[in-house]
From TrEMBL:
This is Apple domain-containing protein. Residues 58-103 form the Apple domain. Pfam families: PAN_1 (PF00024). It comes from Amphibalanus amphitrite. InterPro entries: Pan_app. Residues 1-30 form the signal peptide.
Length: 339
């Protein structure tokens, strides 16, 4: 433990190391792009701790000091206090604590089973590969796997952006991680301000994630997720946030448990929705069905809403969640899966 006076490495040497570590080709980057970047390990487990001097403190400099220590496997850097912590082990989902003030990085070739990684060569255990930025022998990584198998639970936040692995590729996931939502993956979201959805892109569309930058969870991925297990059922939940009007103010949540053989979304030519509706306390609306695809007209994805009419009668109204003209009756709608 001690205060850093930049004598172990001269500044030019540190900068050269920064260039080596942080500007390598994507497949060989060190100190970057692991499963969880904004977080920290327990300071009590650090093998060395420094406070970098004002004007010279950076994650790059901290990474350089880790690189110069043969026992250093990962590091933390605090962007506010300029603290630099070196560790002789790599974090996993049970040891990292989320924080916007800290940056966490791993060194190449130091990761044990279920520890964070950047690429396959980081994983030391035979049979492990770097999937979802974690060393594992699993063939798929979803929000449910991160929550249950990797043990994150709700310790990183109620809704997080995480790395997954599906169909042989890293995939970006929006995960709901609470006791009420234990590892649900966002597979569809549309907002009134969202870009236009078409029948060509609806199966890969998700307004939660940036289109065109990385493979991300969508309806086509959801059908792969439901097939990860051969028996039992999977869960689908929809959340519709309604407009600020007396009749439609609030949030509608519906859930269905579906057999494995039933697709996540089905194409229908009439107003028959997939799955059962569940009750809601929102005034005038008694339930909302799960979404279903339509093969023609302006509507692309619909739900069927049961509206309470005069005399306690209930009528069904088809409400679009996505249209070719971008019109949307809700402020936003989202669909989640837990396989």
């Amino acid at each position: 433990m001690g205060r850093l006076r930049v004598t172990r490495l001269s500044l030019p040497v540190a900068l050269v190391l920064c260039g080596v570590l942080l500007h390598l080709p994507p497949s060989t980057k060190a100190c970057q792009e692991t499963a969880w970047t904004n977080g920290y390990l327990s300071a009590g487990t650090a093998m060395e701790t420094f406070t970098l001097r004002p004007g010279r403190g950076s994650a790059c400099a901290c990474c350089s000091f880790c690189n110069s220590n043969a026992n250093c496997a990962s590091l933390n850097y605090n962007i506010k206090s300029r603290e630099c912590l070196l560790f002789n082990y790599v974090a996993n989902y049970t040891s990292i604590t989320a924080s916007s003030d800290w940056r966490y990085f791993v060194m190449p070739g130091r990761s044990q089973h279920e520890q964070f990684c950047r690429e396959d060569s980081d994983c030391l255990q035979s049979g492990d590969s770097c999937r979802g930025r974690v060393c594992t022998d699993l063939s798929a990584i979803t929000c449910k796997v991160i929550y249950e198998v990797f043990g994150s639970g709700d310790r990183l936040g109620g809704e997080i952006l995480a790395y997954g692995w599906m169909n042989g590729k890293d995939i970006r996931l929006i995960c709901r991680m609470t006791t009420e939502w234990p590892g649900f993956t966002s597979i569809f979201r549309n907002r009134k301000s969202s870009a236009s959805i078409t029948r060509d892109n609806v199966r890969s569309y998700n307004a939660d994630l940036s289109a065109g930058t990385e493979v991300q969870a969508g309806l086509e991925m959801a059908d792969l997720m439901r097939q990860l297990h051969s028996e039992g059922q999977y869960q689908l939940r929809t959340i519709a946030k309604c407009s600020n009007s007396p009749a439609f103010d609030g949030e509608l949540v519906t859930e269905a448990r579906l057999d494995r053989g039933q697709p996540v979304f089905v194409e229908v030519s009439d107003a028959t929705a997939a799955g059962d509706a569940s009750q809601t306390d929102v005034a005038s609306i008694t339930s909302v069905s799960l979404p279903y695809l339509l093969p023609s007209e302006e509507d692309i994805v619909n739900v069927k809403i049961n509206v309470e009419l005069e005399g306690a009668a209930v009528g069904q109204v088809a409400m679009p969640l996505a249209r070719t003209d971008r019109w949307l009756s809700f402020e936003s709608v989202a669909v989640f899966i837990r396989e």
